[in-house]
Amino acid sequence: MRKSTVITGQVFGTVDWVTDDKREIGMFIRTSGRQTRCILQGPVVEQFIANNQVAKGNLVTSFGDLNARVMKRASSKLEPELLLNAFKLDIEPPRTIRPRGALYAQLKSVVMYWEEKTLHMKSFLNSRDAGHADCVTCSVFMKSWVDGIEEEGRTSFVSNIAVGKEYTAMCNVETDVYVSNGKEVPVLRLLPTDFKLQG
Known about the structure:
The chain has helices at about 45-50, 145, 150-160; strands spanning about 5-15, 15-20, 25-30, 35-40, 60-70, 80-90, 100-110, 115, 120-125, 135-140, 165-180, 185-195. By secondary structure, the chain is mainly beta. The protein is globular and about 55 Å long.
């Protein structure tokens, strides 16, 4: 039986908006020069909004399952959004200066694509088959992690990576989007801070 991809994460940042339907919290998180639209959703978030416990300007930390979607703006621009289905939401003490936000992910999956030349790995979330309409691509960029391995162990480590191998990773996360067969596919761009092959 094919293993599924499980990805959870943590978001820390300032609330930039609460949707009119009171179902989602939105925030802009800037990491390594990129700005990521991050959406917190789920029953926990809805309860906080309904009880007036969270509002624009609050500093929050949230934990939950990660996903992604693509939104088409009025300008027809495609914009990826990181989704976090929260199982915990904490309101942090206010700061005088807006702090830098942070996005972290913990991934457990199977290598479904591996390009040794570029040290680029892919797994897929929400679907058994890559390219499915509701599929999210998890792109794991291994170069920085591999560069940090001592030279004598680097070749052995890379040669052990293969399609079908299970792995776990802790990563910084950003979003992206590409079009495949006329369909917009959201991407979670993952930069490992820890990585382990299983078996």
